[in-house]
C-alpha cells in the first residue's frame, strides 16, 4: 500500500470551514454573484497553496433567472373560490403572463391540446443490490452486508424531459409537475439543468399543494392562471486550474465543479473541499515525491449543461494524451430519511458510486484504497450503461471516458441534491479525511503506470465480463 503522510492531510474542521464559507455566500448558479465569488475565492486558495499557473479560463454560459411566480387554480363551477398555489418555475422554461387555461392530467387517452398538462412526479427508487448486477464489475465494499436490504432514492424523475418537450400528439400550453413522490415537502427542485431553452412555461408544486389540485380535478373542470418572469442571458463564467510539478512528464487531473443549484453544501461545496484538500496536501509534498504532474480543476456551469467541462475537454485534446488518469470528486453526502414532511439526516453516508474505467489494475487500486480507508457503502461501477442507456457516467467527469482517458469519478446521488434541503448538516463530514486519503493512495499506487501503458489495458465490456467470470469460477 502506498505511502501517505497523514499529518499533512487537511483536518475535517478545515474542510468543513471551506464548505461553510462557500455555502454561506448564497445561490451558486452559473452567473450568480455567489458563483463569481467562488471563482475568485478558489483562485485565492490555489495561490495561497503555492500552485503554479493558476488560471481563470472564460466560458460563455446561459444564466437563467426567474421570479414573481403566481399560480391560481379554481373550479369552473366555483370561480369565487380561488386557490393561490406556491410553485417554482422549471429551469430554462419560457416566461408567461396571466396564461389562463384548463388543467388536464396527462394520460395516453385524453386530449390535452390547449391545456395545462398536469402530472405527478416520483423520484426513482431502486434496490441497491441491482447496482451490483448492473455494474458488471462485482467490486464493492459492504462490510455490514447492507446492500441486499437497502433501497436508494436518487434525485431524478426521468419523465420530466418528455413532458417539457412533449412527444404527445397534442400540444400543451404549459406544464405543472406535482412532486408527489418527493420524500419531503418542497417545490424548489432545480431540474432539468441542461440549459436547453424550452418553449413552454412550467412549474413544480409540492406534494401537499398538488393534492389540492388533484382533488379539484376530481370534482370537475379546473382552470389555472400562471405568471412568472424569466430571463436567459449569455454570461461569462470560468474554469479554474492550478498545477504542481511532479517527477513525471505525465499528468493526473483532480477536479470537480464550483457551481450549484442553491447554496448547495453537498452539490458541490463538498466536492470543492475534496479538491482543495488534494491541492493542499500535494503542495506540502516535495516535487521529488509527487509521482506525476498534478492539475487541479474547478470547472464551471455544471448546472448549465455541463458547459465548463465540455469547454475544458474541447480545449485540451493534445494535453489529454499525457494524462494518466482523470479523477473527479463530488458529493460527500449523508444519508437521510423523511419524517413529518422534513428531511432528517442519518448517521451513515449515502451509497458511494465510484465510476472506473474497465482497467483491472485501476479497479484493484481503487478497491484497495476504499477498503484501506474503510469507505463502507462503496460500489465500483463501469464507465457506461448506468443509468441504463448512457455511454458515459452521469457526472462532469464523463468527458474523460469519452476522450479515452482512464478515469475515476466519485459521487453519490442523495435525493436532496437539487433542492434547498441540501444544507451543511447533510455533509457526511466523517468521510472527508478518509476520502482524501483514499485518493492520495490511488495516485501514489499509480506511480509505475504511464498514460500509454494504462490505456493499453482498457477492456471491452465483453472482455471484462469474460475475465471476471473466470475469476469468480476459479475463486481467485
Summarize the structure.
With 476 residues, the chain is an alpha/beta fold. Helices cover 29% and strands 29% of the residues. The chain is built from 13 helices and 19 strands.
Looking at this protein, list some descriptive labels.
476 residues; alpha/beta; Aminopeptidase; Glucose Oxidase, domain 1; 15-stranded mixed beta sheet; two-stranded antiparallel sheet; 13 helices; globular
Q: How would you state the average pLDDT, rounded?
A: 92
CATH structural fold name of the largest domain: Aminopeptidase
Shape: globular
Q: How much of the residues is beta strand, in percent? A: 25-35%
> Span between N and C termini?
20 Å
CATH class assignment of the largest domain: Alpha Beta
Look at the helices and sheets and give the structural class. Answer: alpha/beta
CATH-level-4 superfamily name of the largest domain: Zn peptidases
Can you count the helices?
13
Taken together, the total number of domains comes to: 2
- What is the level-2 CATH architecture name of the largest domain? 3-Layer(aba) Sandwich
| Tally of strands | 19
Helix content: 25-40%
| Gyration radius from CA atoms, angstroms | 23 Å
Which stretches are poorly predicted, pLDDT < 50 over at least 5 residues?
Answer: none
Major sheet: 15 strands, mixed
Question: What features would you describe in this structure?
Answer:
This protein has 476 residues and is α/β, with parallel strands linked by helices. It folds into two domains: 6-63 and 234-471, Zn peptidases (Aminopeptidase), CATH 3.40.630.10; 64-127 and 155-230, Glucose Oxidase, domain 1. 29% of the residues lie in helices and 29% in strands. The protein has helices at 12-23, 33-48, 129-135, 160-164, 207-219, 265-283, 307-315, 317-320, 360-372, 398-402, 432-445, 451-455, 461-474; strands at residues 52-75, 83-84, 88-89, 96-105, 116-122, 125-127, 140-141, 151-153, 174-181, 202-205, 222-244, 251-257, 293-299, 323-329, 334-339, 342-349, 352-356, 378-381, 407-411. The chain has a 15-stranded mixed β-sheet that branches. Strands 6-8 form a two-stranded antiparallel ribbon. It has a two-stranded antiparallel ribbon with strand order 15-16. A hairpin with a 7-residue loop joins strand 1 and strand 2.
Amino acid at each position: 500500500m502506498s505511502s501517505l503522510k497523514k499529518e499533512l492531510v487537511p483536518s475535517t474542521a478545515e474542510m468543513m470551514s471551506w464548505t461553510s464559507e462557500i455555502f454561506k455566500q448564497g445561490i451558486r448558479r452559473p452567473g450568480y454573484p455567489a458563483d463569481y465569488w467562488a471563482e475568485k475565492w478558489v483562485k485565492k486558495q490555489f495561490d495561497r497553496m503555492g500552485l503554479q499557473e493558476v488560471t481563470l479560463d472564460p466560458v460563455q454560459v446561459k444564466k437563467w433567472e426567474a421570479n414573481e411566480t403566481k399560480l391560481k387554480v379554481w373550479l369552473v363551477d366555483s370561480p369565487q373560490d380561488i386557490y393561490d398555489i406556491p410553485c417554482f418555475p422549471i429551469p430554462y422554461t419560457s416566461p408567461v403572463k396571466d396564461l389562463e387555461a384548463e388543467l388536464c392530467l396527462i394520460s395516453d387517452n385524453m386530449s390535452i391540446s390547449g391545456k395545462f398538462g398536469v402530472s405527478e412526479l416520483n423520484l426513482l427508487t431502486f434496490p441497491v443490490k441491482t447496482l451490483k448486477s448492473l455494474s458488471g464489475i462485482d467490486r464493492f465494499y459492504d462490510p455490514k452486508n447492507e446492500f441486499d436490504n437497502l433501497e436508494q432514492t436518487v434525485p431524478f424523475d426521468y419523465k420530466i424531459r418528455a413532458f417539457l418537450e412533449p412527444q404527445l400528439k397534442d400540444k400543451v400550453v404549459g406544464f405543472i409537475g406535482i412532486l408527489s413522490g418527493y420524500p419531503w415537502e418542497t417545490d424548489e427542485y432545480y431540474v432539468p439543468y441542461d440549459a436547453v431553452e424550452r418553449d413552454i412555461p412550467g412549474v413544480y408544486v409540492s406534494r401537499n399543494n398538488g393534492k389540492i389540485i388533484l382533488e379539484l380535478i376530481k370534482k370537475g373542470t379546473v382552470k389555472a392562471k400562471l405568471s412568472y418572469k424569466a430571463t436567459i442571458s449569455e454570461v461569462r463564467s470560468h474554469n479554474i486550474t492550478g498545477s504542481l510539478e511532479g517527477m513525471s512528464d505525465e499528468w493526473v487531473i483532480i477536479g470537480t465543479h464550483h457551481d450549484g443549484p442553491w447554496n448547495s453544501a453537498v452539490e458541490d461545496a463538498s466536492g470543492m473541499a475534496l479538491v482543495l484538500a488534494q491541492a493542499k496536501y500535494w503542495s506540502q509534498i516535495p516535487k521529488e515525491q509527487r509521482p506525476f504532474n498534478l492539475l487541479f480543476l474547478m470547472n464551471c456551469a455544471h448546472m448549465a449543461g455541463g458547459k465548463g467541462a465540455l469547454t475544458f475537454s474541447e480545449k485540451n485534446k493534445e494535453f489529454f494524451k499525457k494524462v494518466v488518469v482523470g479523477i473527479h470528486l463530488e458529493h460527500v453526502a449523508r444519508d437521510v430519511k423523511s419524517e413529518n414532511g422534513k428531511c432528517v439526516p442519518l448517521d451513515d453516508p449515502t451509497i458511494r458510486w465510484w465510476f472506473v474505467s474497465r482497467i483491472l489494475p485501476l479497479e484493484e487500486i481503487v478497491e484497495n484504497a476504499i477498503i484501506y480507508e474503510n469507505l463502507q457503502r462503496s460500489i465500483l461501477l463501469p464507465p457506461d450503461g448506468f443509468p441504463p442507456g448512457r455511454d458515459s457516467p452521469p457526472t462532469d467527469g464523463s468527458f474523460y471516458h469519452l476522450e479515452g482517458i482512464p478515469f475515476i469519478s466519485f459521487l453519490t446521488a442523495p435525493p436532496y441534491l437539487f433542492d434547498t434541503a441540501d444544507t451543511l448538516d447533510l455533509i457526511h463530514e466523517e468521510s472527508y479525511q478518509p476520502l482524501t486519503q483514499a485518493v492520495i493512495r490511488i495516485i501514489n499506487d499509480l506511480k509505475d503506470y504511464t498514460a500509454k501503458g494504462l490505456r493499453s489495458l482498457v477492456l471491452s465490456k465483453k472482455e471484462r465480463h469474460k475475465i471476471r467470470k473466470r475469476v469468480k469460477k476459479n475463486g481467485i
